[in-house]
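Ticket #4471: structure output looks truncated?

Reporter: J.K.
Steps to reproduce: submitted the chain below (176 residues) through the standard prediction queue, then opened the result file.
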Amino acid sequence: MEKNNIYRAYDVVLNDANALTVMKYRVEDALKIENGRYIPYRLFHFIDVEYPNNLAFTLQELQNSGFIDVNQFQIPNMLAVSTNPLVQTKLMLLGRNHKLLEKYYQEKIVNDVCHLEGYITYVNMKTGEVSTMKVGNYGVYADEKIRVLEENGYKHVSASYYFQKDQEQLVDAITR
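Returned output as attached by the reporter:
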């Protein structure tokens, strides 16, 4: 086996407690020979995990010390489907420098009827800026629609990072 390039990379994820987490890896590009052909592959070796208070500062420090974001190895799919072609195009474009953190849904009352709306929370892998975007309207509230959303990785807004951050800001404003 012949080894080529070695990189240091970071990834930003939400852990089970809805906390932003920075995972660090050593990444090796390698080649192996199978049936007389060179087959390239990549190995990710876990280095460390951080729970940053200031994500932007942490990412800047990592970049300054030679780390690159994992999006450089493959463009991630934002994995949220929208029936709006403009939103779908934006999702495709966001994939280059952004990473999907979560998908959530919430209820919205329109003309006395409860509708379901879908949102995503994503992070800019270069700057650490966390953003939220509405990705779709899923029609009138129905248990079957919620089941389908949850099967596709959506969670209720009350279990989301977005909701948690909103509540923390509200508590900070009240206690000042």
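Triage note (M.O.): checked the attachment and the full token line is present. The chain has a mean pLDDT of 87.
Status: closed, working as intended.
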